[in-house]
DNA sequence: TATCTATGAATGAACG
DNA sequence: CGTTCATTCATAGATA
C-alpha cells in the first residue's frame, strides 16, 4: 500500500511538473507575441477596425475633441495616445487618397464606392 | 486493486500529457495559417540595374511623374507597378543610408563617392 | 528539412 | 497635406 501510494505520488509530481512546464512555455510564447520593446505604436486589430469604420463613415479629419473621444474609446483594446490616433488618420487619409489617385489618375471613373475598397493592389486593379 | 489503480494513474498521466501536447501543436498550426499567399514583385536584374543607375545619378527620390516614367521604361524587362518602383526606391534609399551610417557613424569621413560603393562590408572598408 | 538572409511591402512618425 | 524617414512584417530563395 505504501509503495503504491509512493509511486503514485512520484507520477503525480512529474505530471504537475509537466503541466507547469507546458503552461510556462505557452506563456513565454504569448509574451513574445506582445512585442516587448516596441518604439512605435502598434494598433490592435480592433482598434484599426474601429478607426476604419469611423473613417469610412465620413469622419476623415476628426477634430481635436473627436480625436480625444476616439482615443479614450479604443483604449478599451489597448494603449493609445491622441497623437497616435491623429497620425493614423493622417496616414490613412493620405494613403487612401493616394490609392484613389493611382487607381483613377484621370478622375473619370465613376464609382459609388471609393475605388480602393475594391482592393488596393495596383496591378490587379488596373484592369478596371 | 492498488496495482490497478496505479497503472490507471500512469496511463491517465500520459493521456493528459498527450492531450496537452496535441492542443499546443494545433495552436501552433493555427498561428501559421495566415494569408492565402500574396506574391511579391520580383524585379529582374535589368530592372534593378536601371533603377540603381538612376539612383546613383542622384535621383534618390523620384517624383510621381518620374516614377511613372521609370515604371513604363522598366516594363520592357518585365511587369512592374508604380507602387513597386516607389517601394524599391524607398527601400534602397533606406538601406544605402543605413550602410553609410554603419561605415561612417560620425559622418566625418570624406569621400567623393558614397562609402558603400567600395563595398558594404564593415570590416573590409574600415581600412581606409 | 529547418534556419538564415535579402528584400518587397506596410506603416507609424516626423518634417516643411 | 504631401513627402520623407525609420522600423517592422512577411516571404522567397539561399544555405546548411
**Percent of sequence in beta strands of chain A:** under 5%
Query: How many domains make up the coordinates of chain A?
Result: 2
Assembly category = homodimer
Summarize the helix and strand pattern of chain A as letters: HHHHH
- For the report, how would you describe the main beta sheet of chain A? none
Task: Walk me through this protein's architecture.
Two copies of one chain form a homodimer. In chain A, 63% of the residues lie in helices and 0% in strands. The first copy, chain A, folds into two domains: 1-32; 42-128, Orthogonal Bundle (Arc Repressor Mutant, subunit A). The model of chain A is unreliable at 120-128 (pLDDT under 50). Chain A has five helices and no strands. By secondary structure, chain A is mainly alpha-helical. In chain A, 9% of the residues are buried. The first copy, chain A, is elongated and about 90 Å long. The first copy, chain A, has helices at residues 2-33, 45-56, 64-74, 82-103, 122-125. The structure holds a DNA duplex (16 and 16 nucleotides). Chains A, B: It comes from Vigna angularis var. angularis. Chains A, B: One of its GO terms (molecular function) is DNA-binding transcription factor activity. Chains A, B: Keywords: Developmental protein, DNA-binding, Homeobox, Membrane, Nucleus, Transcription, Transcription regulation, Transmembrane, Transmembrane helix. Chains A, B: Its main location: nucleus. Chains A, B: Belongs to the WUS homeobox family.
Amino acid at each position: 500500500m505504501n509503495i503504491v501510494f509512493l509511486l503514485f505520488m512520484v507520477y503525480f509530481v512529474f505530471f504537475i511538473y509537466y503541466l507547469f512546464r507546458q503552461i510556462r512555455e505557452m506563456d513565454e510564447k504569448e509574451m513574445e507575441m506582445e512585442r516587448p520593446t516596441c518604439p512605435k505604436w502598434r494598433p490592435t486589430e480592433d482598434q484599426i477596425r474601429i478607426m476604419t469604420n469611423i473613417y469610412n463613415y465620413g469622419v476623415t479629419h476628426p477634430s481635436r475633441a473627436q480625436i480625444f473621444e476616439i482615443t479614450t474609446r479604443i483604449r478599451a483594446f489597448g494603449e493609445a495616445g491622441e497623437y497616435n490616433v491623429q497620425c493614423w488618420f493622417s496616414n490613412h487619409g493620405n494613403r487612401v487618397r493616394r490609392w484613389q489617385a493611382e487607381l483613377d489618375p484621370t478622375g473619370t471613373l465613376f464609382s459609388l464606392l471609393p475605388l480602393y475598397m475594391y482592393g488596393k493592389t495596383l496591378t490587379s486593379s488596373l484592369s478596371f
